[in-house]
Write a structure and sequence with these properties.
This protein is an alpha/beta fold and about 280 residues long. The protein contains 11 helices and 7 strands. Strands 3-2-1-4-5-7-6 form a 7-stranded mixed β-sheet, with helices on both faces. The N and C termini lie far apart (about 40 Å). About 45% of the residues are buried. Bound molecules: S-adenosylmethionine. The site of S-adenosylmethionine has 20 residues, from strand 2 and strand 4.
């Protein structure tokens, strides 16, 4: 239901890049379709990790205050709410993104989940909060930042957390990648395009879209999606330790029981372990 909504609204709501003048609707308008086709890498893929990690999140003064620091849609919000509610807690959640489309989708979901959620449009690097958070969570966000900016991101997360608060996140590690941003290789893009076209043809009612329109959206997505590679576990450890965090967990999701199913064909560039990170602000 949210896939047609996102596709329709993204061209209007998505943020224009001040440098290129282009907006990000190629991503935010198509992501829900990728999710329906089970091609998106989402927090649901790491649900066992997020579930475990949130068990130890507590509010120092009242309900846990959680910041979702960048999110393409409401998947992280759904998990955060569910994992707290099963413990009888109603977390105080702020969803932050630089673009209005994910915020719209989070408001849409929050209304259906009867949750009072604050949605804030901001570059995370410019964001300030009135009261510190008990946890900051996000999925596949480190790759949105160059190595220099990643240090500023960690410093910002540290500033937003109370001492003892945690960063809970997952990032892909691409060993052997260059330092420059990477996109899909031509082979990976070709393979994914044909998977998308095949899946779209099998589910026109679910996607509520003409397969030709989906193919065009796939071409745009596959040519534009990029991320700054995180290249090793050690790089992550040093990043967090150097910015005032104690690293409590760096684990490879491929070693978990839930991951023993065959890896899914994922609409994210490159390959590598999904590194699960829990770090405590000192
Ligand atoms: C969380 S990341 C990766 C997507 C991920 N797989 C997911 O589950 O949502 C993508 C989101 O980060 C947002 N973003 C990128 N740079 C940002 C920044 N500097 N500040 C806030 N949000 C940012 C983008 O708008 C996008 O919605």
């Amino acid at each position: 239901m949210s896939a047609p909504l996102a596709r329709e609204l993204a061209p209007r709501l998505c943020r224009k890049d001040p440098v290129t003048g282009e907006n990000c609707s190629w991503n935010h308008g198509f992501w829900q379709c990728l999710r329906l086709m089970d091609l998106a890498v989402t927090p649901a893929d790491q649900a066992d990790f997020y579930h475990r990690a949130f068990q130890s999140v507590t509010g120092r003064s009242g309900m846990p205050r959680v910041l979702i620091s960048g999110t393409t849609d409401y998947s992280m919000l759904a998990h955060v709410l569910a994992f707290h509610r099963e413990r009888g807690l109603e977390p105080v959640v702020t969803v932050l993104d630089i673009c209005d489309t994910p915020l719209f989708l989070n408001r849409w979901y929050a209304a259906r989940a009867s949750a009072g959620v604050e949605c804030t449009r901001s570059d995370i690097l410019d964001y300030d909060c009135a009261a510190p958070f008990d946890a900051v969570c996000t999925d596949s966000f480190l790759g949105q930042f160059s190595p220099d900016k990643r240090i500023r991101l960690l410093e910002k997360w540290r500033q937003l957390l109370r001492p003892g608060g945690a960063v809970i996140t997952v990032t892909r590690v691409r060993a052997g990648a260059d330092a420059a941003p990477i996109g899909f290789s031509p082979e990976q893009a070709r393979a994914l395009r044909s998977t998308i076209v095949r899946k779209a043809a099998a589910m026109p009612a679910g996607l509520q879209a003409d397969p030709a329109e989906i193919a065009r959206a796939a071409d745009l997505y596959l040519s534009r999606q990029q991320s700054w590679p995180v290249r090793s576990r050690e790089e992550v450890r040093q990043l967090f330790a150097g910015c005032g965090f104690r690293v409590d967990e760096l684990s490879d999701s491929r070693r978990t029981a839930a991951a023993r199913r065959p890896p899914k064909e994922a609409a994210s560039p490159g390959e590598g372990e999904q590194l699960r990170i829990i770090a405590t602000r000192l």
